[in-house]
Design goal:
Layout lengths: L6 E4 L24 E13 L2 E12 L5 E10 L4 E11 L4 E11 L3 E12 L4 E11 L2 E4 L1
Antiparallel strand pairs: 1-2, 2-3, 3-6, 4-5, 4-7, 7-8, 8-9
Length: 143
Amino acid sequence: MRRAATLVLTLLLLAGCEDDQAGGEKQAASGKAQVGLELLDMSYALKDGLHTYSHNRLFTETGGVGVEIKRGKVCVLNGEKCVDALVTYRVDASSTLLQKGHHVATPNEKDTITLHYWAEDDAGNKFEFRKTLKTDGAKVVPE
């Protein structure tokens, strides 16, 4: 069963996960980054007993300040099981970063999936953000 959906977050913060990297030069900046995240082409599949949610992530910076995502953590089973990693994702000022081929999997049909990220913009502002998804089989609702 495949279900496509577009989930949109508009944040003053940012997100990412996996080991994709985007190059870019840091420049002296002032102000604060404004980053949006869209989860595109969301699809669902039951694979090897796991409810799997595949998607692409599109990060968009609109505040004119580049950002670097430094750490990401994804939790399933209502926060009981997490994977935490140091990452290096770059979203240059006033540009985008598309990461293809992401997925999150859980053994439970109904679950709360949390994505938590830490970042720093070129002006030195450090911040973090969380995104929560409620799942019920093929249905995914962002909170």
